[in-house]
Design goal:
Helices cover 39% and strands 28% of the residues. Strand 4 and strand 5 form a beta hairpin. The longest helix has 22 residues. It is elongated and about 90 Å long. It is of the alpha+beta class. Helix 4 packs antiparallel against helix 9 and helix 5 packs antiparallel against helix 7.
Length: 325
């Protein structure tokens, strides 16, 4: 009781000291009639997702497809926060969509803005979904004749029903809409590639597509990057003809590099070993926060690059010694 009296006196003193009492009272009434703090958390979470791919952390962050997804999801979360302020009657619908976007940001962006943006989005979504108008706020928002205002559900709900799903589709994208390797045939059985060190720049797991071969299309993962270097590179054919092996001490790919792989395994930073196939590829597009992989083995259906430079290139047929170039 004593603490409540002190708080009341302190609040009254602040009311007398701070300027613009009428504006502050109007803002307080407006804030109490909507999930204000939930919307603020969503706006902050979306802003954090927007800023991460635009930051100078070029080693950890790549503005590829994952960076574009971060921009889309960040903008969608900020729009959801504004919708909570402007259309509080639809807070359940907005919060569910914002929660889906927040969870997807972990896979679609740079780990959900390194967990900060994702955490703010999840917290804001939970607060928005559980928000209820207080009795004091409901009594203070009556009309001039004393009747309670009718909730503005029609226009706001229709705009949300159209706008938020479109924002979700634009932010996340459709994995099937990846650029394929149309017109460039691949071997029926992709050759095996091994390298002791795979160091990409701007590496992105971009999705899954179909690559044409003489025996029909095969499903392949799409890996995009700005450039890559492969140490102790070895390619071995597996198409049923006499086996051919192509070795290189160092293979460098530069400019719009795209790899089409039916299998990809290796150790992240030489520590965590993983294997990916087209059926287990993370969806939507992912920008992995690592710099290199070791002990890489892949089944390479096709590779495209603006420039390919090989150091110590050797070609061997069967068990014959290679010819060095």
């Amino acid at each position: 009781m004593l603490l409540s009296a002190r708080q009341a006196r302190w609040g009254a003193r602040l009311e007398r000291t701070l300027p613009w009492p009428e504006r502050r009272a109007g803002l307080r009434r407006w804030r109490r009639t909507r999930p204000f703090w939930a919307g603020l958390l969503l706006v902050l979470g979306g802003a954090e997702l927007l800023l991460v791919p635009l930051s100078p952390l070029t080693v950890l962050v790549s503005l590829g497809l994952g960076g574009l997804a971060a921009l889309g999801i960040g903008l969608a979360l900020m729009v959801a926060g504004v919708f909570l302020w402007c259309a509080p009657s639809a807070h359940h619908y907005v919060s569910i969509n914002a929660l889906i976007l927040s969870v997807l940001s972990f896979a679609a962006t740079n780990l959900g803005g390194f967990l900060v943006g994702m955490g703010l989005g999840i917290a804001g979504s939970a607060m928005g979904f559980g928000w209820t108008a207080s009795r004091e706020a409901a009594e203070g928002t009556g009309t001039a004749d004393g009747t309670a205002p009718s909730p503005a559900r029609g226009t706001g709900s229709k705009a949300l029903a159209v706008g938020l799903p479109l924002a979700l589709l634009a932010a996340v994208g459709t994995p099937a809409q990846k650029a394929g390797a149309a017109g460039i045939p691949a071997p029926p059985r992709p050759p095996t590639v091994r390298t002791t060190m795979f160091a990409p720049q701007g590496f992105t797991l971009a999705g899954v597509t179909e690559v044409p071969t003489a025996n029909g299309p095969i499903k392949a993962m799409v890996l995009r990057m700005k450039a890559a270097s492969l140490t102790d590179y070895r390619l071995t054919t597996r198409d049923g003809a006499p086996e051919l092996t192509l070795d290189a001490d160092l293979l460098q790919l530069d400019g719009a590099v795209t790899l089409y792989l039916t299998k990809f395994s290796g150790c992240l930073e030489g520590v965590l070993c993983l294997t990916f196939t087209p059926d287990t590829l993370p969806v939507p597009p992912v920008v992995p926060p690592f710099v290199f992989m070791t002990d890489v083995e892949a089944e390479q259906a096709l590779v495209t690059s603006d420039l390919i430079v090989a150091d110590g290139l050797r070609l061997r047929a069967g068990g014959r010694s290679g010819t060095r170039t």
